[in-house]
Amino acid sequence: MSSKSELESLLNKIVKSNDETEVSKALKEIEDNNEYIEKKQLRSLLTMHDKKFKDQCLIPMNNLYVKYNDIVGKDRNLQNETAFVDRDIRVLESTLQYIIENKNSHNTNHGGCNKTKNSSKDKLLDK
């Protein structure tokens, strides 16, 4: 039993010891370095990066925005205009398809009897 109590007392002495060991010195140095890195170096690195980012990216982009903003402002309704053009194209395609189908059904119903030679309408519809 004395060996168990002796081990516990040695363990308590080691755990509660105020004496610095090589390991505790290394740990303290690591913690101090970490604090220095986070408080000093990281902040200066972020500041430097922010300045570089602003100089290389943000300021040129802002200059382009200022330069071309008036041109873009005139084209704000471009999407609406393209929607109207797209709609008109679809209407024309549907109309042309309807005419072609109507012509084909007319020719099959009448056997092509009413067809005139080289009619300009037929040439247009054949295209």
What features would you describe in this structure?
There is one protein chain. With 127 residues, the protein is an all-alpha fold. It folds into two domains: 21-76; 77-127. The protein has helices spanning 2-15, 22-74, 78-110, 120-126. The longest helix has 53 residues, at 22-74. The model has no long low-confidence stretch (mean pLDDT 80). The chain is elongated, with a radius of gyration of 43 Å. Keywords: Endosome, Transport. Residues 103-127 are annotated as: Disordered. It comes from Vanderwaltozyma polyspora (strain ATCC 22028 / DSM 70294 / BCRC 21397 / CBS 2163 / NBRC 10782 / NRRL Y-8283 / UCD 57-17) (Kluyveromyces polysporus).
For the structure shown, list the relevant keywords:
127 residues, mainly alpha, 2 domains, 0% strand, Biogenesis of lysosome-related organelles complex 1 subunit BLS1, transport, endosome
Structure described in brief:
The protein is mainly α and 127 residues long. It has helices spanning 2-15, 22-74, 78-110, 120-126.
